Amino acid sequence: MISFQLETDTIELHRLLKATGLCDSGGMAKLLISEGLVQVDGEVELRKRCKIRRGQQVEFDHQVISVS
């Protein structure tokens, strides 16, 4: 599990994947999200700019990001 500390109220999903190092670029993150490979709180998320808040969990490539 990867723990990610938010410094603002929200972070866009594609930026979170890049910030945690799970994607090399924002463009790659957007592509993977649009292909349905990312889940937010157990549900497939297709919105690249989905706002992620504290307490949510993001899953991608057998990794879980816990946002606090």
Protein described:
With 68 residues, the chain is of the alpha+beta class. The chain has a single domain, classed as RNA-binding S4 domain (Structural Genomics Hypothetical 15.5 Kd Protein In mrcA-pckA Intergenic Region, Chain A). Helix content is 24%, strand content 34%. It has two helices and seven strands. The strands form two sheets. A five-stranded mixed β-sheet has the order 1-7-6-3-4, with no helix packed on it. A two-stranded antiparallel ribbon has the order 2-5. The longest helix has 9 residues, at 26-34. The chain is globular and about 25 Å long.
Please describe the structure with a list of short key phrases separated by commas or semicolons:
7 strands, Structural Genomics Hypothetical 15.5 Kd Protein In mrcA-pckA Intergenic Region, Chain A, alpha+beta, two-stranded antiparallel ribbon, 68 residues, 2 helices, 5-stranded mixed β-sheet
Question: According to CATH, what is the topology?
Answer: Structural Genomics Hypothetical 15.5 Kd Protein In mrcA-pckA Intergenic Region, Chain A
Between the first and last Cα atoms, what is the distance in angstroms?
13 Å
Number of DSSP strand runs:
7
Low-confidence stretches: none
Beta-strand share of residues: 25-35%
Shape verdict:
globular
Q: Indicate the percent of residues in helices.
A: 10-25%
CATH homology group: RNA-binding S4 domain
Biggest sheet features? 5 strands, mixed
Strand order in the sheet with the most strands:
1-7-6-3-4
CATH class: Alpha Beta
Task: Spell out the helices and strands N to C.
Answer: EEHHEEEEE
Radius of gyration: 10 Å
Average pLDDT level: 97
CATH architecture: Roll
Number of domains: 1
Q: Supply the helix-strand structural class.
A: alpha+beta
- What is the number of helical segments per DSSP (H or I, 4+ residues)? 2
